[in-house]
Amino acid sequence: MSTVTFNDIEKQAIVSLIIEMINTDRVITIEEMYASNAINAELGITEEIFRAGIALDFDYALEVVKKMDTQRKCFVAQQLVRIMDADGADEAEHNLLELIGRRIGLDKELGC
Predict the structure, then answer these.
(1) Three-state SS string across 41-71, please?
(2) Rg (CA), the chain
């Protein structure tokens, strides 16, 4: 289980960003699905939260994450990297991670 906690809306936002990351290279692999399922289990994401997260607007999800403290933003970024690493990160995924980092106010200098 994660050492950081999230409310249901924040969990929905995390699901939204993970789905966006999985879809960004237009190839969904079994490794990405395993990583996503592991993250969902670790965060206690229910079927209801997952479905709501899938439907959540990407820009709204970014606004939700932007309001989190630095520790939780870093945790979200680390989960996105887990998805990227699951099947080998490509340029589109790196670009999306950089975009997300900028939009949520997560500075590269933070080292998370």
Answers:
(1) HHHCCCHHHHHHHHHCCHHHHHHHHHCCCHH
(2) 13
Domains present along the chain, CATH in parentheses: 8-110 (1.10.3680.10)
In order of 5, 19, 51, 77, 90, the CA distances from 25 in angstroms are 29, 11, 22, 18, 8
Place of tokens 């936002």: 13
Gap between the Cα atoms of 102 and 62, Å rounded = 10
Q: H-type helices in the chain, by residue range?
A: 8-23, 30-43, 47-55, 58-66, 70-86, 91-104
Least confident of 3-7, 17-21, 39-43: 3-7
- pLDDT per residue as tens digits for the range 25-65: 888 899 999 999 999 999 999 999 999 999 999 999 999 99
pTM of the predicted structure, to 2 decimals: 0.92
